[in-house]
Amino acid sequence: xxxxxxxxxxxxxxxxxxxxxxxxxxxxxxxxxxxxxxxxxxxxxxxxxxxxxxxxxxxxxxxxxxxxxxxxxxxxxxxxxxxxxxxxxxxxxxxxxxxxxxxxx
Length: 105
Fold this sequence. Notes:
The protein is an alpha+beta fold.
């Protein structure tokens, strides 16, 4: 199981706001989540996606491609991937639970 932190930036849009593009990306993610490929979480600055690494790469490519349109000719995608192969319980929820456990000490 891997976790990807992804930020997709449309370049050259008419407005400094990108919330409509983010909403469109969330629709793609929801579809893939319903198929059981991934889980995801929207944050104020990026989106976290969890799943098998091969599935993450496919979904990330789909997200990157989905932003291109007649008005958007350039897209910058930043990706950070965290994958552990020494444990089977590596997940976003378990990572948070581990930190919270240390905070309670």
